[in-house]
Write a structure and sequence with these properties.
Oligomer: single chain
Structural class: alpha+beta
Number of helices: 4
Mean pLDDT: 83
Distance between the termini: 121 Å
Helix content: 10-25%
Low-confidence stretches: 1-9, 38-46, 150-171, 182-187
Radius of gyration: 29 Å
Number of strands: 30
Strand content: over 45%
Length: about 500
């Protein structure tokens, strides 16, 4: 009897415990769900904030500006390929301050723009006494243009360097050091110089001067006991008005023009140049006298859509002008196929090129097309590293409804590395092509100042899975780029130092 009583008490206790547990679950479940929703929402907010920060950084990198106080003019070169909107501006002469808000915003169109601080921005301060100006965009990017005379040295279009207007008719270069940048005349700068890429060079043996011009390609490895981590161009000024200033560029497709002494010994190189010709010129360990320097950064146009945030086959379109040719390409996301257990994969793409005042209605109306394929194999050991099994690039012209093969072309590239018990190659994250002058002249009939329209498509193929992406969202978008060959700068300096 007592035993049965114990059983009933035990069952009663169990039932009471279950009821309490259920009640606790009923109370706690909404709280847990709310907490989970909070975590998910917080993660989404964090992702959105990261995206906004990336867009802000892109705007700040894609806007080059300077201020000319004698004219009260801000010159802005928008290389983003899309309009940027200014919503606020700040100016001070060191004593007085003014803040202006703009509704609707002031639009900065792609290409070269000028804003007068009084007539366009509405400041009442004396333009010649303004010491600091800041412009803020809708995405939070801040533009703080230096004085145009301080060529530190983000110079772009004709109003930035009057010398380029008078003598060379205006070119979009980011760095420029010519005779008018030094008040005493043709004085020199002293610095250390490293160059690698598809460049031309000529040495004047009587003056011991070397003239180098061409497209840079990043170099990864040692040269003269110095390690270069994907460097295409590097210069350190050790004396002169730019003493202590260093410039290091790690992009495929920049364009450099430089005159200096003494000449290094050019070394042939196939690094980063698939079926192309590259050279390495290393004067980093000696002091060089630099007489002339012009440098054009490759422009990057972001594609905000992606099939996979970690494996984006078309993150940017790349465009630049060369001597008398056009440089175009793609940049992918930087990823490690070894982390995903991939053994073989391919990167396949197409680039479309056209010209005119307006973009083509579709990619089928483009004038030129470049097809490329890069096949990889991934090897595993201590870490993983990728090797290129094969790569091809071919150029086509449009003939009616058909594409006609023109020729095979070289590929210039940059390896993405990760540190895994040493550096391991993962993927060509930049792939660049040169469209030669004959093609531009005979097929595009392109002249300096003409609009070039560029779009593209790319995909990563892994087994039976494709990660494909077009430049645009649902439909193809077009990058507008003004073709501005640097031939006249090269020819002018060549004549100056080699007599024509």
């Amino acid at each position: 009897m007592k035993h049965g009583t114990k059983i009933r008490k035990g069952l009663a206790g169990l039932v009471a415990g279950l009821i309490a547990a259920i009640a606790l679950l009923v109370i706690a479940l909404p709280v847990m769900m709310q907490y989970q929703q909070h975590i998910t929402k917080s993660y989404q907010i964090k992702e959105y904030a990261t995206m906004l920060e990336e867009q802000k950084e892109l705007e700040e990198k894609g806007l080059a500006a300077c201020y000319e106080p004698s004219e009260g003019i801000i010159t802005i070169n928008n290389t983003l390929g899309r309009p940027v909107r200014i919503v606020m501006a700040y100016a001070t002469d060191g004593t007085n301050e003014e803040v202006k808000y703009y509704q609707p915003p002031k639009e900065i169109a792609p290409g070269n723009n000028t804003l007068h601080v009084r007539y366009d921005l509405g400041f009442n301060l004396n333009p010649g006494e303004i010491k600091t100006i800041k412009l803020v965009t809708t995405r939070g990017a801040t533009i703080q243009p230096p004085y145009c005379k301080e060529i530190v040295k983000i110079v772009t279009y004709e109003q930035v360097i009057q010398y380029v207007i008078r003598r060379l008719q205006g070119f979009p270069v980011n760095l420029y050091l010519g005779e008018e940048q030094i008040p005493t005349g043709i004085t020199s700068y002293v610095g250390n110089v490293f160059i690698h890429g598809n460049v031309n060079f000529k040495v004047n043996s009587s003056t011991n001067i070397i003239f180098v011009y061409g497209m840079t390609v990043p170099y990864f490895g040692f040269s003269n006991f110095v390690f270069y981590d994907n460097v295409g161009f590097k210069i350190l000024f050790v004396s002169g008005i730019l003493e202590g200033t260093a410039v290091t560029r790690k992009e495929t497709g920049d364009y450099v023009i430089i005159v200096y002494e003494p000449p290094p010994t050019p070394q042939g190189s196939n690094y980063g140049c698939y079926q192309g010709t590259c050279y390495l010129l290393d004067s980093w360990s000696i002091d060089s006298t630099i007489y002339r320097l012009a440098y054009s950064y490759i422009s990057k146009y972001p594609d905000l859509s992606t099939p996979d945030p970690e494996m984006d086959p078309l993150k940017y379109l790349l465009v630049n002008s060369g001597y008398d040719y056009l440089i175009i390409g793609v940049e992918t996301s930087q990823f490690d196929p070894g982390e995903k257990g991939i053994s073989d994969f391919s990167h396949i793409g197409e680039l479309y090129i056209s010209k005119g005042k307006e973009p083509p209605a579709s990619i089928n109306q483009a004038y030129l097309k470049i097809n490329f394929t890069v096949d990889y194999e991934v090897n595993y050991g201590i870490g993983s590293h990728s090797k290129v099994k094969a790569a091809t690039a071919t150029m086509y012209r449009k003939d009616g409804a058909s594409w006609i093969l023109l020729k095979s072309i070289p590929i210039y590239y940059r390896w993405y590395y990760e540190s895994e018990f040493g550096y391991r190659a993962k993927v060509w994250d930049q792939i660049v092509f040169i469209i030669d002058n004959d093609t531009l002249s005979n097929i595009l009939e392109l002249s300096s100042g003409d609009n070039v329209w560029i779009s593209g498509y790319a995909k990563f193929v892994i087994d039976d899975t494709e990660y494909s992406d077009i430049y645009g969202d649902i439909e193809y978008s077009w990058v507008k780029y003004v073709y501005t060959p640097l031939k006249q700068i090269v020819d002018s300096w060549y004549e100056e130092y080699f007599g024509g």
